# Entry
Amino acid sequence: MLKNLSIPQEFVLLALDRETNKLKSIFRMHVALYTVMACIIELSINGNVTFEDDDTVRITNSASTGEKYLDRLLEIMNAEKPKKLKQWVSYFYYFKRKEIYKMVVESLVDKGVLEIEDTEVLFIVPVKKYTDVANTRNHIVEKIRAELLEHGNVEEHTLALVLFLNIKNMLNDYFSDYEQKTLKQKLEILCKEDIYKKIRTVEIAIQNIDSGL
# Structure
């Protein structure tokens, strides 16, 4: 049964997928930062924040969301002056992204979705093993595939998740070569949505920081 998860929770769960593509998952960059940005999009959909025409993020409702990581993010943002989305990318690039990411992971454990086990590589290097004990990941993928491959609208929640996965090159792994043409056509349509501009802004801001611009 698919649990009621937020965009950042689903994004993190798929980002921790070591089975679909073990090598790629090891080298995924900025997962924690993208998780924070997914939280901001979640807050936008929930009506806690709004984006002005110049992409300034304004808090419109700071009441508790019922999720500790979202409440903590609102607290952090409330303590700062309003910033444009790309400025928030820069802020969280250097500060507090790991805190929020850790809280999202912990929320998945609290929901009984993930189990974390301390283990070792070659009996030397300590690592954490994340197990999708509820098989929630497969349900998320099935929902994504159904909405992208079939006719009809894509839900706003799914739309945001798909665009984040696509930006991070985490989407194609779940579609066969035969389905790639349909997927590409659907993505061309989805990338015309306003939310894509927000996620693209995040991607460009991260690239600029990495390049020292």
